[in-house]
Amino acid sequence: xxxxxxxxxxxxxxxxxxxxxxxxxxxxxxxxxxxxxxxxxxxxxxxxxxxxxxxxxxxxxxxxxxxxxxxxxxxxxxxxxxxxxxxxxxxxxxxxxxxxxxxxxxxxxxxxxxxxxxxxxxxxxxxxxxxxxxxxxxxxxxxxxxxxxxxxxxxxxxxxxxxxxxxxxxxxxxxxxxxxxxxxxxxxxxxxxxxxxxxxxxxxxxxxxxxxxxxxxxxxxxxxxxxxxxxxxxxxxxxxxxxxxxxxxxxxxxxxxxxxxxxxxxxxxxxxxxxxxxxxxxxxxxxxxxxxxxxxxxxxxxxxxxxxxxxxxxxxxxxxxxxxxxxxxxxxxxxxxxxxxxxxxxxxxxxxxxxxxxxxxxxxxxxxxxxxxxxxxxxxxxxxxxxxxxxxxxxxxxxxxxxxxxxxxxxxxxxxxxxxxxxxxxxxxxxxxxxxxxxxxxxxxxxxxxxxxxxxxxxxxxxxxxxxxxxxxxxxxxxxxxxxxxxxxxxxxxxxxxxxxxxxxxxxxxxxxxxxxxxxxxxxxxxxxxxxxxxxxxxxxxxxxxxxxxxxxxxxxxxxxxxxxxxxxxxxxxxxxxxxxxxxxxxxxxxxxxxxxxxxxxxx
Length: 604
What we know:
Elements: E1 6-9, E2 14-17, H1 24-34, H2 43-46, E3 55-57, H3 64-67, E4 74-78, H4 81-92, H5 108-124, H6 133-142, H7 156-159, E5 169-172, H8 176-187, H9 210-213, H10 216-225, H11 227-233, H12 282-293, E6 300-304, E7 307-308, H13 316-325, E8 333-336, H14 343-350, E9 354-358, H15 364-374, E10 379-381, H16 389-401, E11 418-424, H17 433-443, E12 444-457, E13 464-466, E14 468-469, E15 472-473, E16 481-483, H18 485-494, E17 497-506, E18 515-524, H19 535-539, H20 542-545, H21 552-559, E19 574-575, H22 581-584, E20 598-599
Parallel strand pairs: 2-4, 4-5, 6-20, 8-9, 8-11, 9-10, 11-12
Antiparallel strand pairs: 1-2, 1-3, 6-7, 12-18, 13-16, 14-15, 17-18, 17-19
Helix pairs in contact: 6-10, 17-21
């Protein structure tokens, strides 16, 4: 396989060779800065060879002679093979598990995951029931798949054409704080090294996970596969499970063998520059946050400048966030029904809402860690029951408002219920989606809002499909039912919720079904908001008369009317008067910035 990892910066007369999983997004951003691009921090353009505006060289073609010239300095940065290999696995493989069937326009690494799964099923099924780090390494060594030649796990010595290619300076990722400024001075760059936050790229957290992933077998495979990297760049073979790289001093690189390239050594041809502030090394990062970063995270959240939790970055986060940003939440009492580590609760709290966050599991340690960092006080209730959830929440409110001498409140202003009820990623995990939509209305004050985000079937019919399709699952995990978009609309209207607007994305998909992630913003009302064209359908349907809706009536009397009545800027949403798939497709998905997937220190 041919690799073209050499980038020429013609105005300064040097070449930089990037290595994937070695801060390559940051380095490409700097190369675009030096090339004069104002949008140099756009990480999408950093990796877009057609539109990024960088000059990539072909070492095996017309540019071979240029790369051999001694008057053109060449620079690079390398990484400990243990950390680089695990980072590639976490970022390109594990995040795409479980494997699913092909889909038009899918992420290309999903095909890689399917290829690994086919190898596992054929060769390793007796010892490995599912894909893990060891399976990935066996696949790299034994499968002979063309995917094993991807640059993200190709040996660095191959990418950098060692030992044939001479480099004037090679920095180490582990010594980033020391080596990046020295490389930038040599390049004549007047910018400091950009942080992960600057380039909007969350790290994989591989350095904090070495002990969890490196079995003796995994260590042996990495040392076999990347023997040339250990030898060429002077990295010691060691037990990564016993020695966390975060504990290694940043200014103490391992000794190099005599034939190794000069690691961050200033040669005679380097031109002076003005270095800016360097980012923290991974070792420095772990000094402050190593314990919390080692946990399993759902959300990507910034802990300190450039330091992010290793969350999953699911695209539906953008959909829910877009819906919430269209709502004025100041002074509103908000209920976040399945908060995980509290990303939405933090954002709502920072915008002036009074938030109660609940979950069926206990993420208290991680959530409180983020609350302190973001200065976002709100109530957190773990182990909230799925059954009798409404009674549980109302009883909790009653306990907080009870006093022996207090009279019973009557009328529209009561201490019960919420001005905004948020449910993101819940509906397809429960056995009765309709009951949960009813519960949203029971907990929402009249005039308040419900934001419902879920996976949904794109269909014009009122229907639901189960996660099990034949002998396989659509998504896997603990999923149950996927209502159609049309069903969600009708269920909400039947539950006295009037859809005002929505946002959506087409799901990446693991099935031939047409799924979407949709967030619907609906107002709690006192009359069912059926449109005239719905009457014939609804009046003949059990949905109109079903007794499952009756708990809404006493609950609405108890919760009263919202005194805040949060406003909705519907111009920032798509119109929700018709949620049949055919109507939805008339509206292309809204723009969802990549940084919507990440909670950042300055977010509000």
